[in-house]
Amino acid sequence: MASLHFCSECNNLLYPKADPGRRIMVYACRICNEEEIGENKCVYRNDLLTVTKEQVGVTTDLGMDPTLAHSNITCPHCGHDDAVFYQDQSKRKETRMILFFVCTKCNHSFTDPSLPQDNRPDT
């Protein structure tokens, strides 16, 4: 795992540098020219995020939010026919236009039941 290294002489940051004469990587100080041989060959680590399906976010008291639009969709939990809806707010390219509904009576979160089962996000 890549980590920060500091100079033992002046406590400044050491930067990775190739030593072509010895054909090794060293960590060098840009202030006092101190060098130490790099034991770990990793100088950069790129962690890729895994792509996940859309998930219902925090929905506490969304049914009482006056700024959200209402829909006549029936709640699968209690059968009430009034729900507020919102779109997933994640900023990924893969995000589809999926609406999440919250029942105004029981606060149950759900997606449009007319969506095919394999296209529904995790709720």
UniProtKB/TrEMBL annotation:
Gene Ontology cellular component annotations, sorted alphabetically: nucleolus; RNA polymerase II, core complex
Chief site of localization: nucleus
Compartment(s) of residence: Nucleus, Nucleolus
InterPro entries the UniProt entry points to: DNA-dir_RNA_pol-M_15_CS, Rpa12/Rpb9/Rpc10/TFS, Zn_ribbon_RPB9, Zn_ribbon_RPB9_C, Znf_TFIIS
Superkingdom classification of source: Eukaryota
Domain TFIIS-type: 71-111
GO biological process: maintenance of transcriptional fidelity during transcription elongation by RNA polymerase II; transcription initiation at RNA polymerase II promoter; transcription-coupled nucleotide-excision repair
Annotated positions binding Zn(2+) 2: 75, 78, 103, 106
One Pfam family linked to the record: Zn_ribbon_RPB9
Zinc finger (C4-type): 7-32
Entries under PROSITE patterns matching the protein: RNA_POL_M_15KD, ZF_TFIIS_2
Residues noted as binding Zn(2+) 1 in the record, renumbered to the chain: 7, 10, 29, 32
MF-aspect GO terms: DNA-directed RNA polymerase activity; nucleic acid binding; zinc ion binding
Cited function: DNA-dependent RNA polymerase catalyzes the transcription of DNA into RNA using the four ribonucleoside triphosphates as substrates.
Subunit structure of this chain's protein: Component of the RNA polymerase II (Pol II) complex consisting of 12 subunits.
Protein name: DNA-directed RNA polymerase subunit
Source taxonomy: Eukaryota, Fungi, Dikarya, Basidiomycota, Agaricomycotina
